Each structure stands twice: as structure tokens, then as C-alpha cells.
Amino acid sequence: MLQVAAYCRVSTDHEDQIHSLENQKRYFEEYIQGNPLWQLTKIYADEGITGTSVQKRQAFQQMIRDAQRGCFKLLLTKEISRFARNTLDSIYYTRLLKQWGVGIIFLRDNINTLDPDAELRLTILSSIAQEESRKTSDRVKWGQKRRMEQGVVFGRSMLGYDVKDGQLFVNEEGARIVRLIFHLFVTEGKGTHTIAKELQQAGVPTYHGLAQWSNTAVLRALRNEKYCGDLIQKKTYTPDYLTHQKRKNLGEEPLVILHDHHPPIISRALWQQAQEELKRRGQQARQRQSRYSCRYCFSGKLYCGFCGSPFVCRRDLRKDGEVHLSWRCREASCHGRMRLNGQGDASGCLCRQISHQVLLEVMAQLLSALEPFQQNIDGALRSLWSADKKEQSSASWQQPSSPTAALLSKRRLRLLEAYLDGEVPLEDYRTLSQRYEQELQRLETARKQKSVPPAGQPLSSELISTARELLQGRLQKESFYQALLDRITVYDRFRMDVYLKGMDQPLHITLISSSANTPP
Asked: Which pTM value belongs to this model?
């Protein structure tokens, strides 16, 4: 007997579609059992899954795997649109199944893929099915946009609002947190990291009930226009109806903007103040970043010896997955200057790139050849020790520094909520808030003083051992080099001047071997 399987699919999980799926299963069972030469192996069914892509259809994928194992030799399906609305998918999988000796019969379209002219007819009908999917997608998008213009909300509930039947309703418990975030940011001038830390210390849960807050969640709340009563939709769009992948709308499609759409949680003036403050702080951050970045130990400390421009770091991913760091002169004109002066060759400007690893080796060899400058080494080691402690505690930076600090944070939060609710006068709020702030600063100062050994205090044997390894070149520690290094002037891959902190004269470095300096 011939082993026969069937495949059916409905595109939505509505009740009427579920009944349709059950009807399809029943039909295939009766149809296959009615043929005495056929034996039913399995009915594969996908529920509420689109037909334009087969990647998310689990039953379809299982059917392909079973066909490869030889579980059946004939597949029945209702029509081409139930099998796949993508022309390429239809042709690819029918060819693949035919290669494994499995034929497909599309009952309504009267196509058997084992027939000689089956692929021609399949291509034509699949193209028609794909075009119908495109038209359906356009109709759905048109209808959704019209409903958006009428004020229907397409989205999920969020902090401060519940979405029910396409409308936004204020959730007072979340609204109190939203008002608190805007007050801390605008009125008290605190940053997003600080706000997240205080919310976590005070035990305020996130919208999803989690205990851990992030600055990203705070920033997302500050930028959300819904809190002042406005509604902006179509922030994302779907460029391809076949893949259904969403992309951020950067002007490709017009936004749907409705002012005073729903009851606000904060005033429009406060929301506008928050946006202006975000813009101002963003500009300051970009200005600081444009000067130099301290991400690596040589950030802001490498300069071109010909044009004086700073070096910038470049990250390259090798074939083996390893990340390679290199530094090059930021000014492209530096290349021309060197070649005009005869200090470059046809392969390019030697000054424009130097390996990060080479610089580390230069620092290690340099320190191993120097008599230790005790004052500089002592300060660098203390900075190294502080950096290591900071790295060790970075995973738990948001945890309360002490039970007392956590208690003060909760008290200050309750005080602020009472003030926002009108239960505490402004003068009393300012007095108590200032008292809490001073006490928290005192606790934080005391904690920091315990983390770094003060100047003059003898270094531990562990630090002394570390210093010996650093100075002998057996250990490389970027935080140590950053604390000890003032700047490096690079002339090319082989010549550079190194300035250490506290030294007026540079150390002239000439590299003999060039194998390690050749960029990948």
C-alpha cells in the first residue's frame, strides 16, 4: 500500500478558522481511507500561521523532515495557497520532495507534481497565489492605517496605561512611577542610571514585575509621547509582505500622529522640558565623546607625529572570530603629507595604522627596562587596584550599598510620592529630601573611601607582586598603562615617543622587528 500524508493550514486562530481546520482534517481522513490502495500516515496541520513563509510553520517543517526519512510517498493538500503563497517556496519544496520520490497532489487545482507539465502549471498558479497575498497585505495595511487615523490603538499595555479594545486607560499604579521618573529627571536633574538605581533600591517593580531597572527602561519612558496625551503610530513598518520582518520607520512611510488622544499622565509642559533636557544632555555627551573615548587604555593618548591629529581605534573581526584592534591617524590628509615628503611608500601611509597588541608589548618592554619611578608606579598601582575593584562589583552596581542606604532610598521615595499627592507641603519636602540626600552622599563617600587605599598607606604584598610582574613585562594590564601613560607620539609603525606621567622628556622607541607590526 502507498503511504500517504496530508497537509492543511489556516492563517488565523479565530474560532471559525479552527472549525475550518478540523473540517480539513476530517475531509483528508475520509478521502484517503476511501482509496483501498492508500494508507494514511499522518495529517500535518499549522494553525494561525501565515502562508507567505514556511520558516515559522512547525508542522510544515516536520513534514519535510519526515518526507526525507521516507515516512510517506504521496502528500495531499487542498490547494497551492494552503501549501505556500510564495512562488519560490512552492517550486523549491515540490522539487525537493520530488527528488526524494514524494509527489504532491493539489486537489482543488488538479495538479500532481509527478506529471510532466506539473511545474509549469504550478508556477503559474503559485504566482497568482503570491499576488493575491500581496493584495491582501495591502488591504490589511490600508485598513489598519484608517483605523489608526480614527484613534484605534495598535499596541500592547505599558507602564501607566492599559490597552483594552483599542483604547488607552490610565493605570494609576504605573502612572505614579511615571510621574516619579519625570520628576527625578526634570526637577531634580538626575540621570537615567541614577533613577534606575534609586527605583531598584526602593523596591519599585518594573512594568513586567521585575526587580531590576535599567537606564534604557527609564529613557524609553522619558521619550514616550503617550504620557502627555499624544499618540504616534506606524513607528515601524513591514517592507516585505513575504518575510513579515518589521523595520524602524525612518520616513519610508508617513506616521499617524494624534494630539490629545487620551488622558495624559503628565503635563505637556513637563514632557517638553524632559525632551529639551534629553537633547541638551545628548549634545554634551557627544561633545565629550568627540574629544576622545576612554574605552581603551590608549584612547586619547595616541597622536600623529606629522599632523598632530589623534589616533582612533578600529575593530576588525578575523575569520577565526577573534577581534583585532588597531589604531590609525584620524586625518586622511596625513597620508598625503607623508608621501609628498618621501616618508611613505606605494603601499600606503605607515603612520596610519599600528596594532593594539604591539602598543601593549611596547609598554611592557619599556617598563621592564626602566628604573621604577616610585611615585608614578605607586599612583598607577592604586588606580589599577581601584579599577579591578570596580570591575568586580560592576555586575552588582545597582544593589544597595548598605541596608541603611536602601532604607533611606525607600523613605525618600515615599516622601516624594506624598509630595506629588499633595499630602506634604513643598517646604517640608525640600527639607526632608535634602536631609536624605546628604545622608546618602555621606554613606557613598564612606564606601568609596574603603575601596581605594589612601596615598601613603603601604601597598599590599599582592599589589607589590603585581607591580614586579608589570615592570618585568610578564603581565599586561591596560588599566595600569592608562594610569601611567601620558601620551604617545607615533611617527610610523617603528618609531614613536612615549611620555609617562611626571616625565618631561620622552622615551624614544625604535622597533627593530616589523613582523608584529604588520596589520592583518
From this structure: 0.47
